[in-house]
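haha ok so turns out i had the wrong file open the whole time. this is the CORRECT one, sorry everyone. sequence first:
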Amino acid sequence: MNNSALKFDAVIFDNDGTVLDAAPGILASANAAFAELGYPAMEMARFMPFLGPPLQDSFTQFAGMSAQEAERAIAIYRREYNAGNCFVLEVYDGMEALLRKLRAAGVKTAIASSKPTVFLEKILSGIGLRELFDAVCGVALNRLHGGKDDIIAEAARQCGVPLERCLMVGDRRFDVEGAHALGIPCVGVLYGYGSREELEAAGVDFLAETCEALEGICLKNTLTFPHNVLK
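then structure:
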């Protein structure tokens, strides 16, 4: 494909719920923290709102912990996650093929996640996907709060692509809000952890039900959210 036909020079992906279905490993790690701190275990059906925000926010706002309890919970969570739960995951169908097509077309690819960078690097290297990203941007282990916009901006910077030539892809409102804070359009994927209602309420620019539909937006400009078309 001729690069001049592409609308975007870089596609920046959220990780969990967008590239990888990491929910089982995250749930197991969170349940370990709940057990040690005397909170009841959660089942996946009730756990979905936990996925996406920074851990400090999830443990305080969703699980009802104090700030001090949340710090202890994060330490337990990370111990269990690093011990092996980080690899309890699946790559979404069609994602690896999409990444390879983007790179073959000369489009830069990056990760922008609220997960610690050290875990992102470990996971992506361990499952053989690290080579498919020009940049992998997360947060420092000691960062408890913060918006998604600065992570996205850092991913664009590492790719060497101006923000106006970037596209964000994510599954939660945090991805949409972070992208829009930078003036970047965002695709919401409906196969992830967020709902259509959440994404539309956040003002998402496009929606994609599958990685095939996502390819149409990233490479072919086949828009699935026509009342908010990019010019």
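The first strand starts at residue 10 and ends at 13.
again sry for the mixup
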